[in-house]
Every structure is written in C-alpha cells, then in structure tokens.
Predict the 3D structure of the following.
Amino acid sequence: MADTVNKTLIPRLDRRGFLKGCTMAAAALGLSETMVPKLVEAATTAQRPPVVWLHFQECTGCTESLLRASHPDLGRLLLDIISLDYHETVMAAAGHQAEQNLKDTIEKYNGKFLLVVEGAVPTKDNGIYCKIAGRTAMDILADVAPKAAAVIAIGTCATFGGVQAAAPNPTGAVGVQTLVKGPVVNISGCPPNPISLLGTILHYLTFKRLPALDSLGRPLFAYGRRNHDHCERRPHFDEGRFVEQFGDEAHRQAYCLYKVGCKGPETFASCPSVRFNDVGVWPVSVGHGCIGCTEPNFWDTMTPFYERLPNVKIPGSGIVADADSVGKKVLGITAAAVGIHAAVGIGKRLIKGKDEK
Amino acid sequence: MTYEKQKCWSILLRLYHWSFALSIVFLVATGIYINFPWSNTLQLGTGSFPVAWVRYVHFVAGYVFTAAVLARIFLYIFGNAQERITDCLPISGRNIRNLIKTLLQYSYISDEHDERLGHNVLAGCTYIITIIAAVFQLVSGFFMLFPEAHIWQSWGVTLFGNQQEARFIHHLLMWWFLIFAVIHIYLVIWNDVNGPEGLVSSIFTGDKFKHKKA
C-alpha cells in the first residue's frame, strides 16, 4: 500500500528511494537501465547546479502535486538532492532573508543555476497584478531569467498562460516563453506529472543539455504522443463502444469517453503511460474524460469539457450555439434560397412566356 | 442558329472534378460519423471495428482529395486558357464585365447571357475560395492524422494553435462544402436549363457547344 498520506514522514531521502526516483525518471526519458548510474552520478555530483523556483500567477498546484506525490521520493529527490535555493512555498527563509537568498543565488551562480517558473506573468498595466516583495513578476523574471543556465516553465500557466490567460484575459497574462529570450522548456499540464519535471532536470544534469522538444517547447519524452493514441480505452473507441452519458451501463463497463467530450484525441501528454501519484491513475482511468490541460489556450478551446467541439460564437450577437446546429441552419437557409430562386425563375418564365426562343 | 463543339476542359480537370466530388461525398459521410459515432456497439467481443473502419475510409478519401486539390492547383498555373487562375478572378475588364453580367442574370434582372467558354467569373471565384478551404481542410487533416510528425505539428500549431482548434475549423469547413454542393448542383442545372451550351455534359466530355460565329 502506497504511503499516500505520508504517515511515515522520513526526514531524509533514503538511498533506496533516491534510486527509485532516478529509475522512474530514466524510464520516463526512455533511457536504458544502464543509464541509471549515470543519472545518479549526475544528481549527486558536487557541481550540480542550484535551482531557483519562482511563483507568479498560479495556485501552487504544481508544487503541491510535486510534494504530494504519493511517492514521497520524487519531491524529496528534488528538494534534498538537487539544491533548491529559492522556493517560496517550501523554503525556511522568509521576508528580506528570502529575497536575499534569491539575490545571492543568482549572483553567485550567474549563468549556472536552473530556473523553474510556476505561474503566468501578467503584463497589463506594467504587470502590477502580481507583485512579490514590491517587484512585479515581469521585473523579477527579467532580472532572473537572463542569468539562468536554462529556464523550465512548469504548469499550463507558466507555459501558455493557463486559466488567467483565458478570454478576456483581464491581466494580460502570458506564458514565460513570450517574455524570455532563448529556449524555454515547457512542462505543461494542470498539474503536470512530477516525473516530467524530474526527467527534464536529470536529463540536463546528466547530458548537460535540454531534452528534445516539440514545436511548443514541450519535452518529446513526455509530450510526444496524444493521450488518445496510447489510452487504455482506445480499443473501445475503435470497436465503437461508447459512454453515452455519465453513469450509464457503458460508463460502468469503462468504455470510451469520446462522446462525453474526452479531449484525449487532441491532447499531448504522458498521462496514460506514466500516470499519477504512484497509484496508477489518471482522469480517464477513473471514468472522467481528459480536459486537454497540457494544450495552449485550453480554457478557451477545450471547453465545453463535456462536448466534442467548441461552440460557435457569433460576434456581437451574444449567440452561442454548437457547430452542427449552426451548420444545419445555414444549410437549411441555403436550400430555401435555392428553392425561392428556382420558383422566381419559373414564375418569370410563366409571366413572360417563352417568346425569346 | 448553329452551334459548334469547342474543347473546354482537359482530361486532368475532369479527373480532378470527379475525384474531388466523390472524395467529398465520402469525407463528409465518414466525417460526420467520426465526429459523432451514432452507432454504439455496446457489446464486447463482436469483432467489428466500425470507428476504425470508417476512419480508414476517411483517410483514403482524404488522400484522393489531396491529390485532387494538388491537380487543381497545378491546373491553375499550367492548365489551358479556361483552367488558369487568370480566367477565374475579376482582374481584367472582360472578367469584371462577366462578373456583373452573371450577377444580373442570376438575380433575374437581365436575361443577357455573357458568352464565354470557361467558368463565369462568379463561379471561378467561388471555386478558388473552395480550393483555399480545401487546403485548410487537408492541412488540418494531416495535422490530426500525423500528430507526431514535426512538419505537420509546426504547420498546425502556427495555423490553428492546437489540435482542438484544428478539429473545430476542420468541422466548420465541412459545412462550407455541403453548402457549396447544394448551390453548385442547383446552379449548373439552372445554367443547363437556361443556356444551350451543354454545361452538365461538359464535365464528362470536356466539350461545350457555342454559337457558331457567322
């Protein structure tokens, strides 16, 4: 039974747990087991870079999912082995002391530390909608990011803006890659799988470079495939067995959730293979469709979550309707127009007669 | 009044037309099913794969559609005088006059039919819009079909943002093809009834009948 509530709060990461964490990351990266000692070596070497973790417009859910992973080793691996010099949620320092830590780290390890950003950056009105220690998120990012060896954006807010960037985006929130020059690794998801972050960091420590990325800057080892294409319910899709509504017999039989709006066919993630919290679950495995949280603009394009397609919004009219009812209406109007046109033609010919022929 | 037979459409254009039309019939029928698979097997172990099979038909038809679109784009540049893009757009005095006369004739204001061998310009413009819609249709289609191919991903992300947006536009554009088909079939029949050139048969034979110049 997994220790889901941390009953045995081990103060220190033990060797067994540490090796387990490294092995999981190696598996996620698609590396052979012979690479595990190299990962272990890279993670324990004295020259490993410190990590600075900045929080902006977010809910701290990504950090929570990292710390609450039922496998406590993952969180501890990051916190104990990789030196996390500044992390607003878990650091002991507070107030001026904390800010001093950040300042010292980015000066001492200029060009060497890893920067992890959690949360979107508001840009409207000079970014006044998110301030830490009197400085705006924009200022902090512009100060810290150019000094970092690599920038990792964790969570959909930091990568693509997330919920606060959804229309009408009142604070002008954007993802980190919009503001930072140079490559940003996007570990998207709401929250992302901690193993994707750990894999990226260990890849960097071991090979001294970032993992291969897709066109949206997401590591291919975790975001290289659509959920639908490696979902355990895919055979039900191909054989045409669908849940028609939540709670029906097909739902109890764990059939495909396509018709109740599962966004697996448009979402790139490792959820079906890596899964969450060490108990082998992800949304679809417990009967809820994927909501597409790893994709850009997911709040705007993946909603309604329980429909296959977004609604058609007719600008200025406030009319919101589903695509097919709009399509059927337009087609009906077209058919009616064709009928009227033909009738007018026939009427005209009846009145005028066929004199010209 | 005497007529003469004139060569109008090349064999490639006629092949394009019919592969385009037939592939659209299959694509729309299978596409509606893929978006909403109305049949529900509800039983394990039947050994039938309705969604996989319909998707397969959709993809085969998609390749025929792609070939047809590429053939039409080729003909827009290298086709005969009636097939080139310059004959379809209102970019010359002759073409603009034809567009106006066609609009007047279609709205029953005038009975004058502008004698012309190729498309009338109103039709030509509509076909160009349809080919542009078809290009979006096949780019979004390949973006969804090959999610792991870098080239389609970078195109798809640039044009649509994400897969869901591509799917949405792919679905909306399907309605354009349905509406286009209704108007297109009506107007070719209307023209065939009102003009003696043999418009409907020309897409089978490639020939049109024109008044013989005295």
Notes: DSSP finds seven helices and two strands in chain B. The first helix of chain B runs from residue 11 to 35. Residues 82 and 118 of chain B are 5 Å apart (CA to CA). The interface with chain A takes residues 35-37, 39-44, 46, 48-52, 106, 108, 111, 144, 147-148, 150, 153-154, 157, 161-168, 171-172, 174-175, 178-179, 182-183, 186, 190, 194 of chain B (CB under 8 Å).
